[in-house]
Amino acid sequence: MKRLLIALQFLTILPFNIRKEIGAQDYSRSLVYFPAVGLGIGSALSVVSLSCRFLPVPVVAAIVLIASALITGALHLDGFADTCDGFYGSKPKEETLRIMRDSRIGVMGVVGVTLLLLFKFSLIISLPRDVLWRSLIMICCFARWAQTVGCLVPYARNEGKAEAFIKYARKSDVVIGGIFTLIVFGALLGLKGITIFFSSLVLSLIFIRYVRSRIGGMTGDTIGAVSEIAEISTLFSILILGSVWI
């Protein structure tokens, strides 16, 4: 239960008070619960979208994006913005890491987040209403699992908040989370969902590999960026593959 609460506390703004002592390994061991927390977040967004069915689709999409930012505290958007600032240009690793640690957002961060939200908005409004509620569950579940995949990559800094999650991350926990996520995809869209899962995974792994090639590993910011890229990858896969199957 303690490790589940750690996952909830990290991924949402819910004010959980963990009274038991938290060890260094508890953070990494909480990764197995990330997809389940993503399922909960996605379910909440799904309820929001279904509750707003009487509104025009663009309005529903805007409300869903606002709700997502409120539930998560826009944590991953912040990481994506910092990653855009740091990775812009051909800067050396040390300079990239220094820029990402700066609390001030730069021009590329603003541009990156703006384009990301615009792309996400356009993907959401392009999905049929009967597919949207399932898509929201899938993207949230997959994105949180993608974060755990990123945690299998070495930590790029000497110290930092994300180190506790990466240092003791176990492949077995990531595999269990992946199986859970795959089951969710299969339950929602059957064989189509399984195909979408692997398509989204390929795109997410490409991004993780790119990050590692630039700075030699992951940071808290790039893990947040992985989450955002994973959501986009899943939405895009649903749209492209869904246009053929769904």
Describe the structure.
The protein is mostly helical. The protein has one domain. α3 runs antiparallel to α4 and α5 packs across α11. The longest helix is centred in the C-terminal third of the chain and has 45 residues. It starts with a helix and ends with a helix. The mean pLDDT is 90.
Topology:
Blueprint: H1 2-11, H2 24-29, H3 34-51, H4 57-72, H5 75-87, H6 93-101, H7 107-126, H8 129-150, H9 163-167, H10 171-215, H11 220-245
> Total number of helical segments?
11
Succession of helices and strands: HHHHHHHHHHH
Structural class label: mainly alpha
Terminal residue distance: 38 Å
Give the beta-strand count: 0
Give the proportion of residues in helices. over 70%
Strand content: under 5%
Query: What is the typical, i.e. mean, pLDDT?
Result: 90
Low-confidence stretches: none
Radius of gyration: 17 Å
Strand count, sense and closure of the main sheet? Answer: none
Q: Give the domain tally.
A: 1
Q: Tell me the overall shape.
A: globular
Throw out a few tags for this protein.
single chain, 246 residues, mainly alpha, 11 helices, 77% helix, globular
Short description:
This protein is mainly alpha-helical and 246 residues long.
